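Notes from the 1:1 (GR / supervisor)

We went over the backlog. Supervisor wanted to see one worked example end to end before approving the batch request, so GR pasted a single chain during the call. The sequence is below; no edits were made to it. Supervisor asked that the structure be written out right there so they could see what the output format looks like.
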Amino acid sequence: MTAPAETALTASVWPTVGAVCGALAVALGAFGAHGLKSLVADGRLEPQMLDTFEVAVRYQMYHALALVALGVLVGGGRAGTVAGNVAGWAFLAGIVIFSGMLYAYVFSGVKFFAMIVPIGGVSFIVGWVALAVALWRQRG
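Structure output shown during the call:
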């Protein structure tokens, strides 16, 4: 039997974390659409960096929504709670590593940050697999 605190983590914390990550994605997207475009116009930022920034924002938003869905779909299911928490942590790690390193790369131009991005991508994949396991376990 799953401890009530574990179920509460999935049911309440992950959607809240997802909502905060979603709000940050909207704010960063607005900044990219306005603030970064002026940097490109001034020649202080390479135009392709706007595309990189947009990818970071897009993936952050996708996984913010995944965190919200995680709490809604898996939150009440006792069997999927451990896998659900693995999914939540993996999605959050992916946001920080994938999107965060892309943001760092855009703002600094340091290629090292871009080299870390695939680790975040793997984290996203782990999150989706763990979500699938949680949903599968919940049905039985």
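Supervisor's comment: The domain at 4-138 is CATH 1.20.120 (Four Helix Bundle (Hemerythrin (Met), subunit A)).
Batch request approved.
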